[in-house]
């Protein structure tokens, strides 16, 4: 398939969905963008099977920002990996971005992740030998976009995360917050529909974490994303559309604390 230049007419151009995908998007517009039912996940260990999920269900509507909270080892990261086609369920049905991810071949899964999923980890995982601009352009190059065009789109994303003057810096020359902003630009450079973020502020100090989350919120809204964030930060979880607690292999809703003085007072700490 001939790749149309995303930056041929204007430097701010972004990758667009192919016609068949746009039609698929329209046909599924009334369905939750994420639908999980009967999900089970087990691993074999020396001491026997380790079961993370039992009959887990989840629905996320397009445009929602959902926080997933819970104790370490509960399976929060594994859930994100399954949604993003990085891991396979043991049983159950998993639809993400209108795709049955459990039925994808490894090659199909890689194409799905590149096209539909933006992923941000706690650690930025930037390639140290490449500049910030080159790191952001990597997913576009993997998609087959010409280098000049990829760099033009990447430059616009660096500008959007406030780092247009850091494009020629390598990761080791950036602060922790700047590195995570580059990672966020890289995650979104292919215009995915779904953002999966695994403790995206966990390696940052409180002030920097708040600023990075502010940026995630802004990009979530301005680019019509559907976002699922794993976090231990109760204040950040309270800013999401809703929060879910993962415990004993199942997800349950977390109640918001009652409003006081006309302002949100956050999530009920006891529910985490």
What does this structure look like?
With 272 residues, the protein is an alpha/beta fold. It has a single domain, classed as Rossmann fold. 32% of the residues lie in helices and 23% in strands. It is built from 8 helices and 10 strands. It has helices at residues 19-27, 76-83, 106-116, 132-142, 147-160, 176-188, 206-222, 234-238, and strands at 34-45, 48-60, 65-69, 91-96, 99-100, 117-120, 194-198, 226-230, 242-247, 250-254. It has a 6-stranded mixed beta sheet with strand order 6-7-8-3-9-10. A 4-stranded antiparallel beta sheet has the order 2-1-4-5, with no helix packed on it. A hairpin with a 2-residue loop joins strand 9 and strand 10. The longest helix has 17 residues, at 206-222. It is globular and about 50 Å long. 41% of the residues are buried.
